[in-house]
Every structure is written in structure tokens, then in C-alpha cells.
Design goal:
By secondary structure, the chain is an alpha/beta fold. The chain contains 13 helices and 16 strands. The strands form two sheets. The chain has an eleven-stranded mixed beta sheet with strand order 1-8-2-3-7-4-6-5-9-10-11, sandwiched between helices. Strands 14-13-15-12-16 form a five-stranded parallel beta sheet, with helices on both faces. Helix 8 (211-218) links the parallel strand 10 (202-205) and strand 11. It binds threonylcarbamoyladenylate and magnesium ion (MG).
């Protein structure tokens, strides 16, 4: 199977999946995977870019296509418990309880890897992230390909993850063998990542499975991500294995404003005035509440993308990456965003991604 080596663009096949052609599309995609190729597909979190996870040559193509720095570990998608035993060893009892409760679903569990997993897949770490997705397409694909799939998000490294097939098309056409369009990713943000090789387990990335839910099943867990609700352990955990690389950054600089609606709207009006007086083109990424208060039209912002209500973080989460990508295409100098959504549901994960995307943050 061809790859993008030496700048050669490869022909990317495009499949739009439907009830009628489901079997045919999955069989073709599985054949591409089995011949060592790369296929992008939807999951319930975001689109993933899959290849045979235990085949170093296939995994190398993922790194190449995404421009992903070597050493950044990939996670594996599995179809069954048997698959997990193929790639991990010394699996702690807590990990089994997490699988029982949250799989299939948006939870990646970091386990001690076994010798079947090549160094390139795990980024030379002794551990590997494993997830059983709650989506028919990747589940069938893993089953028919007959191997766990290495499957990072299907975006160019460092860009917002893809929640729509169109995002994958924009980033990876000419760089991968096929794209399966199966509609929008239902959740819109990447899975929660929990490391169960340490005690107590550490959440490395917030997602749809919240810390409280995890604690109900396995007792105390630590929060190991930057800017989390519970802080970051004095910075120690920033160095956590596998969390070295920046994420979610659009090309346009993002300025985040957090606080009560009234103060956030005043600050955004002030910032907009400052940037525009310097002749800069400004885009806004706003909740409905703030959009109502700042009267977007009269302000003369160049572009505005609405994420929905501050009280509905799940809706905003689903739109976030689309909003960032949309504004990023408009040739703006700066994006000013509202950063105060409810912490319920996907709120923690949403705020984490907004903070990661931003290079400057005001709390008012
Ligand atoms: O929802 C998701 O997890 C999506 C879909 C496609 O499954 N995938 C995804 O993959 O977001 P990726 O590679 O973009 O993110 C996987 C995360 C990264 O933050 C990576 O650093 C972490 O999991 N990770 C993977 N293996 C790890 C390990 N052994 N130790 C620590 N972190 C690990
Ligand atoms: Mg990613």
C-alpha cells in the first residue's frame, strides 16, 4: 500500500456508508487495513485514523500522514476482551471493572503493554492505551481486520480533532488510503484517558466519562491534566508520560475570557475594540448568553461562531472543533472565545480543550 513518503500524494478513496452498503464498505476498508494501509472512520468521540496496531510498518504510515512527532504514543481500538489480552499484561482488577462499566464507550484505559505491541505504537513506553469504541463502524472494522487498530484522531497533528468527515477530508486527503464518512461524531471530543498502571489511577485527559463516575467504580483517582478543575499537582503531572505534545491548537491565536457573563461580555467588547483599532481581523467563539449581551452585529466582529448555551456544555462540546476549524479558515488575526461553560456533563472536557486551544487567558 502506498504512503506519503518523499512528498508523494496517494489516492484517497472515499466511502459514504449507508444501511445498504455497510457490509461492502467495511469489507473493503478491512482489506485495505489488512494490506497494511490507513483508513479514517467515525467513532462516537471523534474520527480516528486506523491501521494495523501490531504492524510497525502500518503504524509508521499513521505518524507520517498526521505529521505526528515520534514518541507520542498511539492508543489501540479493540473489539473484545480477547483483543485486550492480546496487547496487555498484568491487567489490574480496577481496569477490568472500568471495562465492565464503561465499554464500549469513550474511555481509553492505559495498561502495561506486552511484547506484541511494537515500540513505535507505544511511543517506546512500557504501557499502551486501549479502548472499545461504542460505534458500529470501528467495532466491525476491528473484527473483520482481525487485529487491534492503532487509531489516533484523524487530524494533522496539533490541529483540532475531526468531528466530521469533512474535517478529515480537509486534513488528510492525499495522505491516507481511505476515508469512511459515517456522519458526525456523536460526542465531538476525544475519550477520557485513565492510566491504571499507577496507584491511584490518574486521569490524563478529561472526556465524556467524568472523574466522579470513575470514582464510583474504582475509588479515588487523581487528575493529571493541565487546567483541570482539581489543579495539576504543582506541575509535576505535566510531565506525565504520553502527555508531552501540545494539542488542539488552531493556526489563529485564541484568546479565552472566563468569568460571569456580564464581566466576560465587557472584557470581550474591550478586547475587540483594542484589536480592531490595531487593524486586526477578529473572530468570536461565543456562548449564546455572551452573544446576547455583546450584540455581535453592532460590534463589527469579522466572524462569529455560536457554541450554544453555557448551560448545555454537551451541545457546545459537539460544536467546538467545528467552530475552531471554521474560524481558522477565515484568515483572521485573532479568535476571542467565551470560556465559562457549566462544568456538568462534558463541561470539564470542553473547558480543558478551550484552554488548550488558547494562548492567552483572562479571568474576569
Ligand atoms: O476518543 C479517542 O480517544 C480518539 C478516537 C479516535 O478513538 N482517539 C484519540 O487518539 O484521541 P489520540 O492518539 O489523538 O489520543 C490518545 C491519547 C493521547 O493523549 C496519548 O498521549 C494518550 O492517549 N496515550 C496513549 N497511550 C498512552 C500511554 N501509554 N500512556 C499515556 N498516555 C497515552
Ligand atoms: Mg489527537
Amino acid at each position: 500500500m502506498a504512503n506519503v513518503e518523499n512528498g508523494n500524494r496517494i489516492k484517497t478513496r472515499f466511502f459514504r456508508v449507508s444501511e445498504e452498503n455497510f457490509d461492502e464498505v467495511i469489507n473493503e476498508a478491512a482489506a485495505i487495513i489488512k494490506s497494511g494501509g490507513t483508513v479514517a472512520f467515525p467513532t462516537e468521540t471523534v474520527y480516528g485514523l486506523g491501521a494495523e496496531g501490531l504492524n510497525p510498518e502500518a503504524v509508521r504510515k499513521i505518524f507520517e500522514a498526521k505529521g505526528r512527532p515520534p514518541g507520542n504514543p498511539l492508543s489501540l481500538l479493540v473489539h473484545s476482551r480477547v483483543d485486550v489480552e492480546k496487547v496487555a499484561r498484568n491487567i489490574p482488577e480496577k481496569a477490568f471493572r472500568l471495562m465492565d462499566t464503561f465499554w464500549p464507550g469513550p474511555l481509553t484505559i492505559v495498561l502495561e503493554k506486552n511484547d506484541a505491541v511494537p515500540q513505535i505504537t507505544s511511543g517506546s513506553l512500557p504501557s499502551i492505551g486501549v479502548r472499545m469504541p461504542d460505534h458500529r463502524i470501528p467495532l466491525e472494522l476491528v473484527k473483520r481486520a482481525g487485529t487491534p487498530l492503532a487509531a489516533p484522531s484523524a487530524n494533522i497533528s496539533g490541529k483540532p480533532s475531526p468531528s466530521l468527515a469533512a474535517h478529515v477530508v480537509a486534513d488528510l486527503t492525499g495522505r491516507i488510503d481511505a476515508i469512511i464518512d459515517g456522519g458526525e461524531a456523536n460526542i465531538g471530543l476525544e475519550s477520557t484517558v485513565i492510566d491504571t498502571t499507577v496507584e491511584p489511577p490518574v486521569v490524563l485527559r478529561p472526556g465524556a466519562v467524568g472523574i466522579e463516575e470513575l470514582e464510583k467504580v474504582i475509588g479515588i483517582v487523581r487528575s493529571g491534566y493541565k487546567d483541570g478543575k482539581r489543579g495539576n499537582d504543582g506541575g509535576q503531572l505535566d510531565k506525565q508520560a504520553g502527555q508531552k505534545c501540545g494539542h488542539y491548537t488552531p493556526d489563529t491565536k485564541v484568546v479565552l475570557v472566563e468569568g460571569e457573563s456580564k464581566f466576560v461580555s465587557e472584557k470581550i467588547v474591550e478586547l475587540l475594540g483594542n484589536y480592531r483599532s490595531r487593524g486586526e481581523k477578529v473572530g468570536l467563539l461565543l456562548s449564546e448568553e455572551i452573544a446576547g449581551l455583546v450584540a455581535v452585529k453592532e460590534l463589527g466582529a469579522d466572524e462569529c461562531f455560536l457554541l450554544g448555551s453555557r448551560e448545555e456544555p454537551d451541545v457546545a462540546a459537539k460544536k467546538l472543533f467545528e467552530g475552531l476549524r471554521d474560524l481558522d479558515r477565515k484568515g483572521l488575526d485573532i479568535i476571542v472565545a467565551d470560556g465559562s461553560f457549566s462544568r456538568s456533563g462534558l463541561g470539564d472536557a470542553l473547558i480543558n480543550r478551550l484552554r488548550e486551544a488558547s494562548s492567552l487567558r483572562f479571568t474576569v
